[in-house]
Write a structure and sequence with these properties.
Layout lengths: L1 E6 L5 E10 L2 E12 L5 E9 L4 E11 L5 E9 L4 E11 L5 E9 L4 E11 L5 E10 L2 E12 L5 E9 L4 E8 L19 E2 L10 E8 L3 E9 L4 E10 L2 E8 L6 E9 L2 E9 L2
Antiparallel strand pairs: 1-2, 2-3, 3-4, 4-5, 5-6, 6-7, 7-8, 8-9, 9-10, 10-11, 11-12, 12-13, 14-15, 15-18, 16-17, 16-19, 19-20
Amino acid sequence: MKYSYLHDGNNNLTEELWQTWNNNVWVNESKYCSNYDGNNNLTDLFKQTWDGSIWKNYSYKLYTYSENNNLIESVFKTWNYANWVDNSKNAYIYYDNNNPAYWLKQNWNGSTWVNESDYSYTYDFNNKITELIHKTWDDSIWINVWKNSYTNDENNNCTEWIWESWDGSNWLNSYRYSYTYIQATVVNEDLNSVNYYSLSNNYPNPFNPTTTIQYAISSRQFVSLKVYDVLGTEIETLVNEEKSAGKYELNWNASNLPSGVYFYRLLAGSFVQTRKMILLR
């Protein structure tokens, strides 16, 4: 697979081209085109696929933001050979401090938007998330599905994460994750003595609002390292340049993003790897 990128004057990704190798030539597979507003917020993401001779419409995502640049609505549409047809919609509500408060997912049934699921967020006085509840819509009422509860220490580090499921009348414990933190020490290494490719788990994880990402490449390559949200939308490009063989480390600051699950993907030559990270405020 080959990936080609175009950026605007603000370094926003405007086009991403995917190609596959076939009979000694690179053949188009799909293309993503993006537009941004004056605040560099992504406003639409347009996908086309290659049918062998022309580009054909495939999907379209529209994004709407508040005056605080918070994403308040995203609409996903598909192409039906003649028109764009509504498919699904996400609506977001925020607290006054811009922390996410509510996330509603709906589907289009041909005439109206129908509820699918929602997420409700609760925070402590340090703006750290303490509870996340997920529900699904059952024709006329909301039904509990699962609940995450979080405990944080005096340094605002997450020390416990409990996952509970709903049995119809009570919350039942399912998983529990405990975290401890120690002071990091300096390790001296020869960064050039690398004979492998890797993308390490970020640390800490969960994190707020910064985390460290490490990767290694064994030969000089053009490296792309990008962050995506759960919808597959590109959030930020961390690396997009040629790198010499070695180990690399960088810090990612997500202070302008809501709590949630994010993915980071490393492309270096034929090496591709994706990992998951969790932002907890």
